[in-house]
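Q: Can I see a sequence and its folded structure?
A: Here is a first one.
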Amino acid sequence: MTDQIFREADIERIEMLFRSKASHQYVSTITGEMAVNKSMIYFLLDIMQQVELDSLRKEEQIVAALMVNGAFDTHEHVQIAPVQSALHKKKRQLTILAGDYHWSLYYSMLAHQIHAPILKVFSSSIQQINEEKMRLHLAESTDRNDFIKRLETVESGFLQNIASYYGQKKTAEAANTFFMFKRLNDELQVQEQQPLSAFMAAVHAYWTNDVEASLQEDAVLGLEELHWLQELRENYFLELQRHAAELPETSLFFSHIKDTISQHENKFIQ
């Protein structure tokens, strides 16, 4: 890995390394092959350009972060609503165990003493995000700004903490905006999905103040909720454009943000 602008080959190598570490025949039968969050790779490679570690240690931290994200994604697919059949209960238990398996992988990736400081960032971030997920699940937020802040923490708090640890505040702020926009856009593409995703269930629970209703298999978002999410998406897109103007053009994450803006600017800004 060089400390210059990373080529596509560097990204592909990280993907292959992640898949080789995450691959487990039995776990794959439960959750399927774990998806790679390519946007995260762009972000993490960008961060690592400024870090004084050798190539091996950089890759260990990047892949460990992808493992954490994979574990979060796996746990997000756990059905929260009560299940009655033994088959569904077993599936839920196995999905939880699959996510736990990926937690163990991230820890083993950071076993070398040189990773001790960043390991603390990983551990505290995981605890913080899990706590915020629980607060969202229980619809504890009454203030809209507080609710949005919790969504942001769940979506990008982990990456923001990594960037902040390495002294890259602007990149951390850009990550917050980018990953919230990406999540909002992805969710609105499948807005009729049932049951609701954890993200949409949190929105529905906050909006209706009815946690139980948001977990039902036939739960749907109302027009007012959808309009609010669409407006929120457009606000994050505008903010993303501002970040793109502030990041250095040599930044790999800047290039990824610019590509994203180019794909969507005609859709949201009239």
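Q: Show me another, different protein.
A: A second, unrelated one:
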Amino acid sequence: MTRHLTSVVLLAAWLGATLLAAAVVAPAAFAVLPTRALAGALVGRVLPPLFLAGVVVGAAAAALQWGGGARGLRLALPLIVALAGAGAQFAVGPRIARLRAEIGPSVDALAPTDPRRRAFGRLHGVSVLLLGAAGLSAAAALVAAAAALRSRA
């Protein structure tokens, strides 16, 4: 039971941090900072630790579930959290960083038809999709782990 409870705590902490960043920090940054470039830079500094934490938490939760005898979704969902975090951090993140370095301080200064702006938009969309997939997987993993805890109690 301790393995499942630890998994629940890890996933809940990561999901809470992710929801705070996505629902509070990012909108607040874009609302109060004087430029979208500054807000994007702030959010861009917040996301990598979340992605890396998702890798660690997802892998740890999966290992805890595996060690506790879990299989199926209770094992797969935390792995999705880890894989989505890894994809966002190590595949998408570096490509966004290279584009930002090439573009300069403001993506918004580019014409809407500029291929670099379009590429940035696509990569941003993939990053959002990966974070969303990780968040939904973490929430589903929490439900599955909590149900397993209840059934054992």
